[in-house]
């Protein structure tokens, strides 16, 4: 496995600190009050007075030494293609804080440092300021003359965010070709001599004058960030898309102060006598400092908590060693290069394990990686630096094809499943207009002149799936019609901030308030319940309140890690240590009423989880040199071992004394069979999976499965909804609503709410929460932030819950009263998921691997082993002698049929916890498998239907988070592309890497990362561009560098 850090562990650890800014949720009232932290900060009224004007004529004077270019506006100069980060660069990234990161270019050893100075949410474009360090000891600001073009005779070099340069070759006719290095952008020299760069996927444009000075950036709708200069060419001010002005102070040719639109000092900068940046201070007064060696290269980075990161270089200027200041003792990563041509790099991680990377000699693109066990993965590129093939350790290749405009036009799995993408809009030739999946289902997409999606349509159904209309002057989304023609309307203030969302009735209007920097300060839901948010100076949420009561408060350390989370009566404190990948949690101590509970974590020097201690005891993990889990010694005394193939797929799990589970995969990495045997070799259970259509063509959806000798065949409609499962049929409307489930009619209203099923009439509040069911006279009560708190049946309490967070991700206790039997559960949530449940005082504990998969279980004093399927659902439990004690069979939507002593096993569908009432707790929401739906709308806003489960394809998709549908087997190219098109989601990153924002989500990993950045940062003024650049720094197309980066394959780039 070509990675040096366990991505699953890192993502899971991040997820243990729940996403607290998803629109929203609240803890149950308790006795102890929570106060707003002193760090809460409210910005003042904004400045709208521009300072400066047009850039000076001719070449700008350089404020510090830089190589001489032929002409243009350069201060910082594009002298080397190895600066910064570009889509085809392979980077080893080190996250220092939530605002600071470092990276090493694995091809050439270049050191890259990136600091986010300021982010202000805007309309269409956020205003982001970043300082980046690159080759020759140069620092780059992504604004002003550092962004000026370098105009050469045969090419134009364009600096991009992060300090890299995109190269546009000049054609014989005087026009310019598409940018190299995978930057999907064009350069046009306009009449009069000015220049315009346009990014294909986002539609963003950057405008320059004839001397190459950057004048403005604009989104596809013309919302513009404008730059203003002093007479000496230094940056004086910039106005964001809402007219708010950020100002700059330049001293002796260097920016020494940045003042944000509210008047707060956002950054202060100190330089040494050699004009090198030595210290930068953020808006909260926290500083990062740098020292340099005799060659002018950065030698140390002292972070915000005064820990020193050190860097060593070869005589050629390549990074050879980077030392991480871990509290438990510093650790180092080292790099060795072939010289003088660096076409091979050996990376040695802090554990001493080596990964060898091979690069093209001329272009420097990564073509292979060999892990410490000798397993090799490879990839090939097009001339434009688009991934053409990715090949795993078993020589299975995924292939992409491109047209002459470098648009991806098809993808083919190793098993043959092929999806095609069409581009027929001549005015917007780089935006996809159709996608056809392996089964031939085709979805089309239309755009307005600016490139905004206006219509998504199914060819087979001859029906609109999504219709959108935009309004001037900012061309913002005015209304949207879903696949059933139901309208959602959006309202804005004069600046362009979204202020109202009016969904179809009976849902109520959601109202959103902002501070002067466009950070969301209040959300009033359809029930007219308002939740308020407070932030610190670095845009981190520090308090969530409602009706004058603080529901949750948070404090952070200087690196941006959450260190305390308090809800009424409960405080949880987190500790961390620094590892190459990021800060990793080392303990979570929960205190309530004087009682404490601590979960602790240990890691090896590279950041792999080596032990987890919860109330059940300590679980210990061991890895091979490629960082594949080889054994798990659970807290119950058993050591389970694991085996893998050369493509890093788990092929065996061996339970001592009980037996084993073996897995077989096809060339695309999809599970094709699993077999459970006892130690004597007797087969206990077998399941097989088939993806081939009746005509022999490979598909991207499961066609049939056989479990314990019973075969179920599946068919799907033109929108990839499940249509039949064996003799059971399903009818789904175009908006993903089940209208008939196995013969039971479902009535759905305009808001996609199930209102009647099997004689049961259902009611909802105006926020969308299920409040009543007629058959059982059931009533449900919710908190101000939409947590299910209490349920009654004919006035008798049947359900009661309290939570440790302001959403439903961290339930602490749930009490159920069914048929006169009361069950109270106390939950312990950890970085790998729920691991301990005390039910009426009897503890059930499970051991999970670092990715959260269930492995073993202890109920009271009895121990069991889990047999799990391709979705993570439990198929059977084995006792310690290899006897099957219980089996679990699921209908497509998760209704379970059990045999044996199954009542004691509550971890079932998708590995989630099943309540006595039959519902599953999945992350943010409760799921009712009988209805095949969630009981409340998606709080993250990521689903196209807020209630539907897995987009009505529970066979190939799953949603254990309650917030985001994902492919079960991770290789559904057609499904992924179709989903993107059906959702009408165009990439919105200014600089895309082919993967665009989707790639960034992959890099961040898990709900705690992807949703946290995409939602949490966004709501607080953070930046999706930062997420994108995290992706560009080694994950989205870095492909398989060390540090958690490996061959993703083309399927992950869609």
TrEMBL record:
Keyword Ligase attributed: no
Domain annotation Teneurin-like YD-shell: ranges: 484-677, 681-940
Keywords per UniProt: Repeat, Signal
InterPro entries per record: Rhs_assc_core, RHS_repeat, T6SS_VgrG/RHS, TEN-like_YD-shell, YD
Signal peptide feature range: 1-27
Keyword Protein transport (UniProt): no
Ranges for region Disordered: 51-72
NCBIfam families, alphabetized: Rhs_assc_core (TIGR03696), YD_repeat_2x (TIGR01643)
Protein known as: Teneurin-like YD-shell domain-containing protein
Source organism phylogeny: Bacteria, Bacillati, Actinomycetota, Actinomycetes, Pseudonocardiales
């Amino acid at each position: 496995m070509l990675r040096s850090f366990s991505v699953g562990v890192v993502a899971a650890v991040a997820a243990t600190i729940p996403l607290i800014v998803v629109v929203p949720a609240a803890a149950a009232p308790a006795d102890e009050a929570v106060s707003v932290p002193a760090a809460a900060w409210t910005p003042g009224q904004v400045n709208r007075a521009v300072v400066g004007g047009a850039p000076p004529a001719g070449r700008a004077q350089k404020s510090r030494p830089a190589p001489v270019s032929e002409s243009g506006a350069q201060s910082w100069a594009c002298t080397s293609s190895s600066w910064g980060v570009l889509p085809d660069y392979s980077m080893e990234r080190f996250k220092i804080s939530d605002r600071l990161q470092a990276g090493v270019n694995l091809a050439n050893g270049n050191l890259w440092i990136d600091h986010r100075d300021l982010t202000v949410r805007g309309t269409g474009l956020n205003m982001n300021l970043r300082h980046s360090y690159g080759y020759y000891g140069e620092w780059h600001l992504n604004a002003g003359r550092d962004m000026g073009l370098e105009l050469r005779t045969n090419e134009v070099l364009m600096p991009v965010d992060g300090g890299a340069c995109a190269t546009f070759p000049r054609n014989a006719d005087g026009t310019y070709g598409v940018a190299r290095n995978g930057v999907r952008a064009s350069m046009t020299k306009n009449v009069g001599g000015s220049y315009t760069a346009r990014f294909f996927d986002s539609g963003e444009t950057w405008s320059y004058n004839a001397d190459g000075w950057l004048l403005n950036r604009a989104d596809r709708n013309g919302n513009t960030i404008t730059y203003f200069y002093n007479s000496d060419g230094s940056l004086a001010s910039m106005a964001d898309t809402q007219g708010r002005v950020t100002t700059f102070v330049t001293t002796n040719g260097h920016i020494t102060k940045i003042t944000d639109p509210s008047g707060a000092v956002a950054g202060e900068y100190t330089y040494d006598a050699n004009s090198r940046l030595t210290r930068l201070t953020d808006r909260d007064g926290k500083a990062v400092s740098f020292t340099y060696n005799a060659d002018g290269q950065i030698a140390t980075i002292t972070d915000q908590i005064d820990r020193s990161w050190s860097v060593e270089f070869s005589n050629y200027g390549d990074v050879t060693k980077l030392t991480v200041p871990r509290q438990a003792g510093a650790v180092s990563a080292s790099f060795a290069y072939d010289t003088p041509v660096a076409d091979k790099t050996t990376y040695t991680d802090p554990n001493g394990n080596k990964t060898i990377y091979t690069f093209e000699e001329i272009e420097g693109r990564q073509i292979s990686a060999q892990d410490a066990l000798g397993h090799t993965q490879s990839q090939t590129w097009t001339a434009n630096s688009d991934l053409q093939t990715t090949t795993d350790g078993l020589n299975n290749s995924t292939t992409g094809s491109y047209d002459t405009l470098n648009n991806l036009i098809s993808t083919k799995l190793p098993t043959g499943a092929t999806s095609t993408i069409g581009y027929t809009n001549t005015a917007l030739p780089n935006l996809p207009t159709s996608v056809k999946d392996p089964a031939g289902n085709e979805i089309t997409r239309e755009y307005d002149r600016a490139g905004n999606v206006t219509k998504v349509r199914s060819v087979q159904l001859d029906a609109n799936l999504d219709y959108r209309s935009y309004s001037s002057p900012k061309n913002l989304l005015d209304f949207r019609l879903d696949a059933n023609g139901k309208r959602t309307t959006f309202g804005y203030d004069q600046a362009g901030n979204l202020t109202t969302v009016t969904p179809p009735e009976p849902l109520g209007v959601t109202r959103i308030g902002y501070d002067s920097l466009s950070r969301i300060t209040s959300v009033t839901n359809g029930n007219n319940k308002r939740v308020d948010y407070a932030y610190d100076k670095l845009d981190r949420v520090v308090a969530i309140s409602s009706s004058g009561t603080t529901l949750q408060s948070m404090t952070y350390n200087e690196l941006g890690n959450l260190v305390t989370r308090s809800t009424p009566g409960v405080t949880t404190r987190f500790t961390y240590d620094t590892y190459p990948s990021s800060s990793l949690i080392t303990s979570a101590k929960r205190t309530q009423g004087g009682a404490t509970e601590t979960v602790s974590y240990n890691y090896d020097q590279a950041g792999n989880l080596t032990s987890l201690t919860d109330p059940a005891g300590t679980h210990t993990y061991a890895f091979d040199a490629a960082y594949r889990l080889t054994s798990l010694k659970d807290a119950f005394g058993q050591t389970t071992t694991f085996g893998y193939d050369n493509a890093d797929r788990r092929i065996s799990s061996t339970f001592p004394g009980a037996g084993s589970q073996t897995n077989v995969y096809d060339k695309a990495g999809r599970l094709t069979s699993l077999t459970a045997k006892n130690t004597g070799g007797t087969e206990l259970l077998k399941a097989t999976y088939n993806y081939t259509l009746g005509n022999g063509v490979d598909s991207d959806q499961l066609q049939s499965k056989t479990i314990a000798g019973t075969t179920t065949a599946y068919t799907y409609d033109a929108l990839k909804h499940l249509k039949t499962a064996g003799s059971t049929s399903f009818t789904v409307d175009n908006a993903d609503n089940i209208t008939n489930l196995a013969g039971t009619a479902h009535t759905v209203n305009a808001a996609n709410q199930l209102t009647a099923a099997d004689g049961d009439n259902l009611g909802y509040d105006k926020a969308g929460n299920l409040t009543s069911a007629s058959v059982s006279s059931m009533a449900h009560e919710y908190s101000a932030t939409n947590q299910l708190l209490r349920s009654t049946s004919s006035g008798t309490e049947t359900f009661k819950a309290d939570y440790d967070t302001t959403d439903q991700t961290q339930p602490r206790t749930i009490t159920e009263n069914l048929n006169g039997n009361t069950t109270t559960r106390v939950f312990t949530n950890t970085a790998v998921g729920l691991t301990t449940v005390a039910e009426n005082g009897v503890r059930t504990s499970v051991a999970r691997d670092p990715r959260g998969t269930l492995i073993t279980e202890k109920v009271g004093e009895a121990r069991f082993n889990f047999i799990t399927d391709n979705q993570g659902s439990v198929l059977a439990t084995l006792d310690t002698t290899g006897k099957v004690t219980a089996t679990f069979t699921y209908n497509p939507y998760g209704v379970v049929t059990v045999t044996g002593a199954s009542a004691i096993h509550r971890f079932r569908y998708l590995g989630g916890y099943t309540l006595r009432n039959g519902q599953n707790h999945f992350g943010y929401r409760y799921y009712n498998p009988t209805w095949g739906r969630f009981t409340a709308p998606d709080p993250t806003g990521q689903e196209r239907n807020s209630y539907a489960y897995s987009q009505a394809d529970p066979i190939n998709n799953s949603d254990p988070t309650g917030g985001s549908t994902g492919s079960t087997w991770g290789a559904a190219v057609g499904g992924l592309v179709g989903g993107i098109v059906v959702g009408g989601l165009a990439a919105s990153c200014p600089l895309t890497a082919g993967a665009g924002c989707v790639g960034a989500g992959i890099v961040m990993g898990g709900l705690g990362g992807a949703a946290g950045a995409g939602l949490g940062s966004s709501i607080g003024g953070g930046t999706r561009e930062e997420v994108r650049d995290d992706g560009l720094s080694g994950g989205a197309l870095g492909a398989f560098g060390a540090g958690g980066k490996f061959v993703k394959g083309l399927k992950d780039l869609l």
